[in-house]
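pasting input
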Amino acid sequence: EVQVVESGGGLVQPGGSLRLSCAASGFTVSSNYMSWVRQAPGKGLEWVSVIYSNGGTYYADSVKGRFTISRDNSKNTLYLQMNSLRAEDTAVYYCARVPVWELFFDYWGQGTLVTVSS
Amino acid sequence: QTVVTQEPSFSVSPGGTVTLTCGLSSGSVSISSYPSWYQQTPGQAPRTLIYTTNTRSSGVPDRFSGSILGNKAALTITGAQADDESDYYCVLYMGGGINWVFGGGTKLTVL
């Protein structure tokens, strides 16, 4: 069974850092595209970042230079390192699989809440 | 800046048919945008409904269908049911460094 499970969310002060993890099972992370999507409280979905199977990475303008997406193939896990956090980064962060060349999000985790506040 | 547009809200009667649309602030949506649609209820993760314009995800009832109507992507629900009351999001693949852009979502009420 394909599953992705996020962890690592929590309360952090503005300017702080946090690393989110997304443990995958039932498929190989490195053979797919993997993405992060977030949703601020009461707001819509926002694409954040993607790592392609060839290792290429892309980011939304809102997080470029502050967030870094990566993966550990030995652990079959995706990560999102978030630095210089701002109040507007407060959101539920979802990990999602993107089947290669299909370019949509087929499996989603349950999400992990990040709250940036002093 | 690329903006994907959706109706903020829509209402449909039980058993009725509704078409939600997904457009671009400038330009047309085509199959090369790989439009996909997601359903979300409060407190839950999104559920994939439709991908690559008109392919239903596994387990999605055939009363959900996707298409291109004019210059927009469209999600049609035929024979709406009470549990279709949800938020619906479309997303377009823009390519290059932009990658994906979500629409603002449509809140569908069934009453």
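fyi The CA atoms of residues 91 and 102 of chain B lie 4 Å apart.
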